[in-house]
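Holo prediction. Input below; ligand is protoporphyrin IX containing FE.
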Amino acid sequence: MDTAPAPFVPPAPTPRTSPPSFLEMIRIVYRNPLELWGEPSYTKPWVSVSGVGGPLVIANDPGLIRHVLVDNARNYRMSTVRQKILRPILRDGLLTAEGEVWRRSRRAMAPVFTPRHIAGFAPAMLRCAEAFVDRYDHAPAIFDIARDMTMLTYEILAETLFSGEIAGSPGGFAKQVDHLFETMGRVDPLDLLRAPDWLPRISRLRGRRTLAYFRRLVAETIAMREARLKQGDDVPEDFLTLLLRAEGPDGLTRAEIEDNLITFIGAGHETTARALGWTLYCLAEAPWEREPIEREIDGVLSREPDPAKWLDAMPMTRAAFEEAMRLYPPAPSINREPIETDTYKDLTLVKGATVLAMPWTIHRHRGLWDRPEAFMPERFHPQNRERIDRYQYLPFGAGPRVCIGAAFAMQEAVIALAVLMSRLRFDTVAETKPWPVQKLTTQPQGGLPMKVSRR
Ligand code: HEM
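Structure of the complex:
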């Protein structure tokens, strides 16, 4: 008789069975776009509708996704709605740049994200995670794990890409970034309606002051490092130095360097933090999955001191993280817009349409996954992996604009999980009732209050 417990099914909105009214739709878009999608978005290869802001295509078919993001990527730019949200914050940073600026910038930054370079970050990642564990010295107690993971990943980012030399206090800086995305990073109903830019987006006005403060800190960070470079100091060869050395006619402008500091601080920690939080939550609700992972971690830690090797040495830990990113993709929506009208099979993608390749619906698609709503890390175990199509699992996107930090994030996540789970145990309590909400990233509404105890 099979005694394996039924898999844990974590909370998520149920697909809508009828479309919302216009007003309801505006309200949902503002509150939580994840609640917008109906049955067809989770069952059909694509859904083509005429939305309030023009034609909209929800792309779920891996072939179609490959067509848009890879094979015919040249015909697609970032969608207008996404750019309206992000460009005022990130300007010409890598995430929002297009055309020649994007190509030049991606080339300039690539050296920091080579496998060799990323392996070099492992000791700093380990140091940060080990120091972080000390904050739980009065465990057992209840902590907000969502907030804690943001602090941990911010510290790792600051220590690796910036060698700890970011202006302002660490906690303050991380909080400002959160506030910035909280206020400015929402889909404003006016953007969806493609209202003219001169109409003020109330949702974003509150973020303006934070943005100005943030830009001042970035300018200060650059000035501090420049002063050291001018003095001929022995400066760290990190991301910040690389960007400053790339300044010039064939490299980056001063404004682009600033934009990229904001971009990498913004894109480089919150996403990983969300995925770590959801992983610890799912594992706490499925202790039968957690136990073998704890054993795997204990075993590797006892024989392999080099943290750069842990990602490959811990397939079960990695699989749990990947499965949590399937259920709660930190970047729930990848948006594009055809530059010229395009076709795929019998689908027409008209010029200017919004094409949504949403990890949220693709990862929960009933035609692509068995029991898509359930937390089943074994899907990602090495022997099962090849059953997953490259374009049905997109936590980091695909094609030329694939996440530049993907390998960084995977290494960081496994090191963080190994250190945290080898020393501590995270359990849910009565107040742990997260509800996934899309605010740029997939966040747990209400945070993740969890009981942390020593193992
Ligand atoms: C679990 C963690 C992460 C997730 C799920 C994630 C997800 C993504 C996704 C889906 C994209 C593609 C967006 C699109 O095609 O429209 C992207 C792009 C990007 N990511 Fe990440 N990311 C993560 C971590 C990081 C880290 C650690 C960094 C930096 C250190 C980073 C920096 C960027 C940048 C700069 C881009 C823009 C790349 C380009 O357009 O050329 N991300 N990320």
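Residues 148 and 310 are 22 Å apart (CA to CA). That is the main takeaway for now.
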